[in-house]
Design goal:
heterodimer; A: 263 residues; mainly alpha; 88% helix; B: 8-stranded mixed β-sheet
Chain lengths: 263, 160
């Protein structure tokens, strides 16, 4: 009897904990969003953060995009040539990059490259009581430290995703046209015939925008809520990658179902 | 680092992003083929539109001259009505005929327009009366089997 009540209590406590966590995250999100608009005016803070989050991620994004494009070109050609439609390789590469791989892979890399550093930075600031010190000086750490990083992540993510897709298409072109020898005209013409600017490219940009919000928010909140110890920061960094990646994949499924289920 | 250098790097980052988007829109997407020229709207009724979709190309002699704007169902006549946007620079006779064709064996369907001989030209909101529906493979096979069966039975009667 006692074991049953204990188990019930554990389930109840767990559920209440999760609900409290969701509510907490929602309140943090609202507070952060309210401070994100004034943060747009703090030019220097914003510029430094975009530089840190965006520019330093360019290399990994471009290199990954290029290789994803190569692999898509090779694998796509292998399947398509069985049906004699290797001309459609350009379309296959462009659609899979613009709709799915561009935003999703960029968001996953972004979570690993930029999200972790944001979490660790905020977590260490908290551990070193810098955030409390700011509060003592009547400086709101949320608008001075967190909000500029939030805005920078939202700005950088669509830029990086667009770079990823563009470089990936070039990678597919290099493998498909230069190496395998598909007709260049057919490669681009099929691509242009099948990729719609608003439905495909536009929805890809919307996706990357949403992922930017999700990944940056998760990274910042995890850092902000980290327990101020070395282990706490380490755990928070790991949690950022896991939570952000899962959130990106779940959001991607929902958005794909909403955006592309019609066609 | 000097603040000027950071400015330049962030500027380059943003410009690279815009360039990538332009590349996606112009080179990979169909923004370049979006005709900004004016179009005129005609409608055509079909018994069956098959797999024709909105934004499918309208071709004459293989050249794209317009797009299918919308496809509706008319519950008075039980026909499908396709709205077609043709580019204003191309004029077609009033008795031109529209056919639903397939590009290649498994390709997507498009609308083929064949010019007629009428001296008056199609104008805005005109209707193309001369239409040919999409070929439905099941009906075709059904017809073929039916004909075969009819032939078979007449053969066996001849022998008796």
């Amino acid at each position: 009897m006692n074991a049953t009540t204990n188990a019930l209590a554990a389930i109840g406590a767990w559920t209440l904990d999760r609900i409290r966590d969701i509510g907490d995250a929602a309140r943090f999100f609202v507070r952060l969003s309210l401070r994100a608009v004034p943060a747009l005016g703090r030019y220097r803070l914003l510029r430094d953060q975009i530089h840190f989050v965006g520019n330093y991620s360019v290399v990994i994004i471009v290199v990954s995009g290029l290789f994803v494009g190569f692999v898509l070109g090779l694998q796509g050609y292998y399947t398509l040539q069985r049906y004699g439609s290797e001309q459609a390789l350009g379309l296959l590469v462009a659609l899979s990059l613009v709709r799915e791989l561009g935003p999703v892979v960029t968001a996953l890399l972004f979570a690993g490259r930029a999200g972790t550093s944001l979490t660790a930075e905020i977590g260490l600031m908290k551990a070193g009581e810098q955030l409390s010190a700011m509060e003592m000086m009547a400086v709101d750490p949320l608008s001075r430290v967190i909000a500029p990083r939030f805005v920078a992540g939202i700005v950088a993510m669509p830029v990086l995703a667009a770079l990823f897709s563009a470089v990936g298409i070039i990678g597919g072109y290099i493998v498909g046209v230069q190496l395998i020898g598909i007709d260049e005209g057919a490669f681009w013409a099929q691509m242009q015939g099948g990729v719609d600017v608003w439905n495909d490219v536009g929805n890809g940009v919307i996706k990357s925008f949403v992922f930017g919000i999700a990944v940056t928010f998760i990274a910042l909140r995890t850092g902000y809520e980290a327990s101020p110890t070395p282990e706490g920061v380490a755990r928070a960094t790991t949690k950022t990658v896991v939570t952000a990646s899962l959130a990106v994949l779940a959001l991607d499924f929902i958005m794909t179902a909403l955006m592309f289920s019609g066609s | 680092m000097q603040s000027k250098t950071i400015d330049i790097w962030v500027g380059l980052f943003v410009i690279a992003g815009i360039a990538a988007l332009l590349f996606l829109a112009l080179k990979a997407g169909n923004l370049a083929s979006f005709s900004t020229d004016s179009t005129y709207r005609v409608t055509a009724r079909f018994d069956n539109i098959g797999g024709l979709k909105p934004r499918a190309p309208v071709k004459a002699a293989g050249v794209v001259i317009g797009r299918v704007a919308a496809i509706r169902f008319d519950d008075k006549t039980y026909n499908a009505v396709a709205d077609i946007d043709l580019q204003s620079q191309y004029k077609f006779p009033k008795d031109s005929s529209a056919k639903i064709l397939t590009s290649g064996l498994l390709g997507e369907q498009y609308l083929g327009l064949e010019a007629g001989g009428d001296p008056t030209m199609l104008a805005n909101n005109d209707r193309i009366t001369n239409t040919q529906s999409a070929i439905v493979l099941e009906n075709l096979i059904g017809q073929f089997l039916f004909n075969k069966a009819a032939e078979g039975s007449s053969d066996s009667k001849d022998k008796q």
